[in-house]
Amino acid sequence: MKKSTLLIIAMFALILNAKSQISPSTYTPVRKEKSIKLAGPRAGLTYIGGELGQQMKDNKMSQYISQVGWQFETRYFETRDGLQGLIETVILLGAIETAQPVLSASALVGFRTRQGFEAGIGPNISTAGGGTSSLVIAFGHTVKNDNVYIPVNFAIVPGASAVKYTFLLGFILRSDKD
Would you tell me which of 89, 99, 123, 139 could form a disulfide with 72, CB atoms 3.0–4.6 Å apart? Predict the structure, then answer.
């Protein structure tokens, strides 16, 4: 019992010491604003690699599939330096050129810098192969023009039998009111 009390006191002292060493020049407070909602269309192309990609190639099928869909984005914080915290949901309908279209959805948590670089990570679910789930890792760049954002993104979805590489572009608009 005494060891756990000493451990808690020591941890508390370390936290206070670390917090006291943050100088105002390195600490960037978060702006207190309501979250901003954006939404818009996405279109792109996915390359399917791995075991599934090889099977597609062996069966003389294209390893490339089209993607069309919609992105919902919530910017839930922004620092004074312009770093934004993001939550994104991307719903895509892929392979519409085939007789077996695939629906997928990704939910990402990430960030965007003032210069427009962005990255995120989260779960991905898909109707491919009777239903699969995986992790999605995405990064890209967004150009802002007034209230229109033009994202260009690349995503990697590693799975048990396939690795999917997706390139998407589109635009998103503010969907909330100022």
Answer: 89
